[in-house]
Amino acid sequence: MRKLIVSAFVSLDGVMQAPGGPEEDPGGGFEFGGWAFPYWDGAIEEPLGAIFARPYDLLLGRKTYDIFAAYWPFQKDSAIGDQFNAVTKYVATSRADPLTWASSVKLDGDVLEAVARLKQSDGPDLLTQGSAMLVRALLARGLVDELNLFVFPLLLGKGKSWIDQSAEAGEFALVSSVTSTTGVIVSRYRPAGPVRTGSFAQDEPSEAELARREKIKAEG
Fold first, then answer.
1. Which of 17, 65, 88, 95 has the fewest CB atoms within 10 Å of its CB?
2. 35 — pLDDT class (breaks 50, 70, 90)
């Protein structure tokens, strides 16, 4: 069985659109392309390198695939580029135009069912990069086995987010965490079961508290 690993650069408000440069994805009038660049340091490169040190195939949404396919095949003397060019790229897309990057495979039919089948097959782990819409769908189906989040210390206010209210509820255990010199928090999480709940409230609620609860019920 393969694991599905989500790796993402995100802002404090969850935006993951165009971290690498202004022309990467200006869709929706996004004005802050390249927001990750000012925060880059060696403390980010080490955990990022650890992700790529493990065997993997890429699992990409079509927009991220197009960005990568127009960039990585043309980079010389790039270790990550060499890896990306060599590994299998599984692509979630409904478009009919061909996938021209070497070793690219279109996921036909129901994409999430196709991903579930891939996870049951032999081979290296599946690693996402970018692909916000695909990541949201994977989280909603509960297909994610590991999160690697690079959280940058800024608010972007708008843009494509890695998560929405469709995500399957659940707890995650923190496996490791490091903070860069520029304030980027790099954390690795794995699913840890259903959400637990409890209460800090008093055993005997006050009359005011009881009235508040009744008001909430009445308001629906």
1. 95
2. very high
Nearest to 129 by CA among 182, 101, 91: 91
Separation between Cα atoms, residue 129 and residue 60, nearest integer Å: 7
- Joined together, the tokens standing for residue 186 give 């790099």
Beta bridge partners of 191: 172
Long-range contacts formed by 86-91: CB under 8 A, 24+ apart: 87/56, 87/57, 87/58, 87/124, 88/57, 88/58, 88/123, 89/57, 89/58, 89/60, 89/65, 90/57, 90/58, 90/59, 90/60, 90/114, 90/115, 90/118, 90/126, 91/60, 91/61, 91/62, 91/65
d(CA 203, CA 213): 15
Q: Decide if pLDDT at 15 tops 90.
A: yes
What is the tens place of the pLDDT at every residue in 63-115? 999 999 999 999 988 999 999 999 999 999 999 899 999 999 999 889 999 99
Distance CA 167, CA 22 (A): 29
Strands 185-191 and 146-152: antiparallel
User: Could you give the 3-state DSSP secondary structure of residue 145?
Assistant: coil
Is residue 44 classed as helix, strand or coil in its secondary structure? helix
| Axis-axis angle for helices 132-141, 111-120 (nearest 10) | 70
Q: Output the pTM of the full model.
A: 0.92
145: closest CA among 181, 185, 173, 166?
Answer: 173
How far is Cα 91 from Cα 96, in angstroms, rounded to an integer?
12
The whole-angstrom separation of Cα 20 and Cα 214 is 50
